[in-house]
Design a protein that fits this description.
By secondary structure, the chain is an alpha+beta fold. The protein has two domains: 42 residues, Roll (SH3 type barrels); 71 residues, Arc Repressor Mutant, subunit A (Orthogonal Bundle). The chain has four helices and seven strands, in the order βββββββαααα.
Length: 159
């Protein structure tokens, strides 16, 4: 998943989109309400792109966890983040069986599932490989257009 410019702010519900850097604050926009606000330097702001989940062997990026959930749910919403702790643990064992049970808490699971569902409801779950394919296709089209323009110019200079 592409999580660039998506932020979580400790103590503030929901997710935010980075808008601009101010002198002593970051200007952000709430994804669900669209309300712009500033997160001051003292606020704990985390980029979703930088968040990883502890596993028995290392760490797994949050974007990879979202990819796994997306595939498991076949592009649909995940379970409710308000499910019982037992259900959340069971669900997490299905999607990431090697997660570190000592360092990944139920509260972490709730946040991740809530974030996934927010992004799903706003249709912001975009696969990285799809974006890479789109970029490659756009580059190929631009190259073909440039070649056609060069050919037209050569024809004009011949005439």
């Amino acid at each position: 998943m592409i999580l660039k410019d998506l932020l979580a702010i400790a103590g503030s519900p929901g997710l935010y989109k980075f808008i601009a850097q101010g002198k002593n604050a970051v200007i952000v926009e709430h994804l669900e309400t669209g309300k712009r606000t500033s997160a001051h330097a003292a606020a704990k702001v985390s980029s979703l792109e930088d968040i990883a989940i502890f596993t028995e062997t290392g760490e797994v990026a949050l974007s990879d966890v979202f990819d796994i959930i997306f595939e498991k749910e076949e592009g649909e919403k995940s379970i409710d983040h308000k499910s019982s702790p037992g259900e959340l643990k069971e669900y997490f064992e299905e999607i990431l069986p090697e997660y570190d049970r000592d360092r990944v808490y139920v509260s972490d699971m709730k946040k991740m599932i809530q974030w996934y569902n927010i992004l799903h409801s706003l249709d912001l779950l975009e696969k990285e490989e799809k974006k890479d394919e789109d970029e490659a296709e756009a580059k190929a089209k631009a190259k073909a257009k440039d070649e056609a323009e060069d050919k037209d110019e050569r024809q004009k200079t011949k005439d």
